[in-house]
Predict the structure.
Amino acid sequence: MAEQTMGLLDDEAVVERVLGHVDNATSDMGESVWREPVDNYHSQERFRSEVELLKHLPIPFCPSAAIPEAGSYVARVAAGTPLLVVRDENGDVRAFRNACRHRGMQVAEGTGCKKYFVCTYHGWAYRLDGSLRYIPHRHGFPDIDDASHGLVPVEAVERHGMVFVTQEEAVGLGALEGLDDIPQLITPDQHIFDSSEKTSDVHWKLNIEAMLEGLHIKFTHPESFYPYGYDNLNVVECFGNNNRVTFPFRRIEKLRDTPPAERDVAGKVTYVYHLFPNVTIVVLSNHTALSISEPISPTRTRFFNYRLTNSGEGSDADNVARAKRDAEFVLDTGGKEDAAAIQAIQAGLNSSANQLHLWPFREGDCALPPGVERQPAGIKGIRALLKRPAWQPCQIDL
Ligand code: FES
Ligand SMILES: [Fe+2]
């Protein structure tokens, strides 16, 4: 009998559970119907609370591979705050509020590699550790204490091949909870072959929700995903506040004759990892897609997307070419279909037709050993955190 180990089912157990669902025409389900108030997608007040919450949790900012060497940096807005993440001369990751200590200009934009950061407004310069390096026209600032005018740091830590940033005093472990119990999500050999950003007129949670259920496969993806997969046949698991939803391909049934211990799921399932609350990592047949949803308004979201070769594939040219073909296929077919559906749901939100959205299960409603209680995970967990009478700051032991 396969065991649940390391916080998630191993391959053998996933295959066993999937084949059981195939045989019985079942899927992992929650215990009750989840009703999400539609106002939670509309409300400006709710939106402000969610963005505030994002500042108080460790949130994946970028893959570690996006800043491979000393001086490599990524500058972007996260939860409304301009941030700069850089690898310093010792190889450690640092994060700063991206605002010059003179008059607040951003000291870096986008991505690149620098020995130090020079503000393009009046030329104040900062080292990779954030310390103030130089002030032009120094005689105009006779009283400035350099030591207290470095870039303002924020908490940054590397885990599972990603950089997590916590902007304000943490109210929980967020996505970091349970990560130590699962295998590395992004391994050092995985090569980023594409990074992009895209802004869409949709609520930030809609895109994530669309990736966490398989009820729509037959109707939304009749010629793209459905011929190779199943409708409403998923394995749903939780680790900490996070989830993994397994979408099997029909070819997984070929493993029936393979001894259980030799069952390898590579190419036979798509794993969708949801890192609480605004990040997804999708491990497809020939590439891995990491997407970070940055809320702009209740009806507008910027997506930061990274595409990588799969674990074990490295940066070999043939593997990269195969990963690119896989990514293009997914984006041109099912990806477009999902995007169209999400746009249509956003329009439906504005129709005032519904007060509630219904789910037969909710991500986070997964089986737990008897007697184990937990806070709701996934998007549902946002509601649980926001419902606390007062956020309780907690110490994160990193
Ligand atoms: S705002 Fe940066 S040097 Fe003036
Ligand atoms: Fe879909």
In short: The chain has seven helices and 21 strands. The helical segments are 11-24, 39-42, 44-55, 204-210, 217-220, 317-349, 378-386. The pocket of FE2/S2 (inorganic) cluster (ligand 1) is lined by residues 100, 102-103, 105, 119, 121-124 (CB under 6 Å).
